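Narrative of activities, Objective 1.

The group set out to show that a structural description can be obtained from nothing but a protein's sequence at a throughput compatible with the screening campaign. Below is one input-output pair from the validation batch, recorded exactly as produced.
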Amino acid sequence: MALPESRLLDFDEIPVIEISRLHDNNGRKEVVRAIDRACRDIGFFYIVDHGFDMRLVSRLQRAASEFFSLPEAQKLELGLDPSMRGYLPIDYHSKITESFSGTSHQEGFWIGADAGTGSRHPLEQANRWPKRPRSLRRSMTDYLAAIENLAAVLGQGLADALGQAEDFYAIYFARPGSRLKLNHYPPQENPQRIDNIGVVPHSDSGAFTILWQDANGGLEIQSKNGEWVVAPPLEDSFVVNIGDILQYWSNGRYSSTQHRVINRYGVDRYSIPYFVNPGVDVTISALDGSDSFTPFSYADYQMSKWRGFFPVDGSSGGS
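Output recorded for this entry:
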């Protein structure tokens, strides 16, 4: 029996927030309040009027399509390494919890801030690039630089919503463990089980994610009452969702919401998530000073999560 189709989300269920006013002292407080409400109520929101050059998206989508069209053997020469850089093969298996694992009908390509030969941590390494297409490296690094600028503006807005200092993002994300990923979802006709879809249900393990999705749709989020609803594409927007680290930092005030992808639409789907993560030397504790959980190393936490969710060096990483 096929999985039932999810309800299409009404846009008033996920706020659409114009973030240009984060640069305006007069409008900033109103935008911060809107961000705070969205993070408390659902953990997802759209951002528009963001100033991002959408031509960078078009360039990168074309390069991604060309890369994912290469023979599998060529792509596997860049198999995902322990620093989470390289090619993620299609139909990888993930262990989400002790009681739930699944196969994701998706392939991807990852990069991060390039530490070159001066790395100080296993997550701080050099990026790895395919020989073809030649346009991929330039397109991806240009996009990375631009999306990090957007992340800094949005990240400080989130910090403001939590009552933090105006240099919070600059301090905690000085050496970001962030990752940029290209996603390709081949069409999946008539999916039967929740453990074998585009991406199985999960929450993101970092601070927050800035996602561009193409016009085909497929992203679904779980509401507070447990219902799965489709988050439809909105032209020239990004979808932002809260990750586990912001849920910890906010001491549960913000929700790291479960989401999944099902490509039911008969065409290839592409998306570009930027996983915004703190520096590898950051210790995570509740920002309100409470002792509701034991402080922990962000890097250790992130590495453990990635090892369970993604195959590394040809292994099935926690499966």
